[in-house]
Write a structure and sequence with these properties.
Layout lengths: L1 E2 L7 E4 L4 E5 L2 E5 L4 E6 L8 E4 L3 E4 L4 E3 L6 E2 L9 E3 H4 L3 E4 L4 E10 L6 E7 L2 H7 L2 E4 L5 E2 L3 E4 L8 E2 L2
Length: about 160
């Protein structure tokens, strides 16, 4: 498993040619299917060049590998679909249960780099508690709702928090 935040800044390379074709600047998540949807490769405001997760050959420790440069394209037409969220828009939100309990702040997610499946939330209780006790992990909820300010999860999720390994 890898953390989504570890993807930012990785070079994107074509295996057959050994050339770098970009750098990961954003990860877009499909919350409805609990997967990584695509990687965006530019920070320019008017550009949405990226590669769909299905077209990624391998995600290694130090680089994202593509079989062909042709799989890089404009993701803008696809990014307006419901349920797609750039990580910048959801990391930092409070995680609240449906009964009103604040579980913590969503700071990252773990995923399977082979499949793109989202596995767990990384939850913070604040800098001081994180430093003393470490962050917590929470399995990805079956049902969740993301608003402008919060991630709403079932009450049962508060019982599933565990120490970061």
């Amino acid at each position: 498993m890898r953390r989504i935040s570890e993807m930012i800044g990785l070079p994107v390379m074509v295996t057959g040619e050994g050339i770098q074709v970009g750098t990961v600047t954003e990860v877009v998540l499909d919350i409805d299917s609990a997967t990584v949807f695509c990687l965006l490769l530019t920070d320019e405001p008017d550009s949405s060049q990226g590669v769909p997760m299905a077209d990624i050959y391998r995600i290694g420790e130090d680089a994202v590998m593509l079989r062909d440069e042709k799989c890089i394209g404009d993701m803008a037409p696809l990014l307006n679909q419901a349920g797609l969220y750039p990580t910048r828009s959801i990391f930092g939100k409070d995680i609240i249960t449906e009964t009103g309990t604040n579980i913590g702040i969503l700071t990252d997610m773990q995923f399977d780099p082979a499949t793109g499946e989202l596995i767990r939330y990384v939850v913070s209780d604040g800098i001081l508690v994180d430093w003393i006790c470490g962050r917590k992990m929470m399995p990805l909820p079956v049902a969740q709702m993301i608003s402008d300010d919060t991630v709403l999860v079932p009450e049962s999720m508060s019982q599933l928090l565990q120490e970061d390994d």
